[in-house]
Write a structure and sequence with these properties.
- By secondary structure, this protein is an all-beta fold.
- It has no helices and 8 strands.
- The chain has a two-stranded antiparallel sheet with strand order 1-8.
- The radius of gyration is 13 Å and the shape is globular.
Amino acid sequence: ISFSTPSGKSCANTTRVVFPGMPAVTVKALAVWDAVSDGNLIAIIDITSDPIQVNQDEAFIVEVGDIGLSL
């Protein structure tokens, strides 16, 4: 994931994130890590109030600007 240059202590993703071939699942949270493996958890974004249903073999897509981080 690429993020914008921070402004006012916040930034957002600047690239579309695609998770292809998902199992049938309800997405209730997103996590941002600083490495692909053995990294540190940076943020958890709780979306339990508006979970996303993904059907078997569909892609889960996070559009540009959908992940916003603030300090």
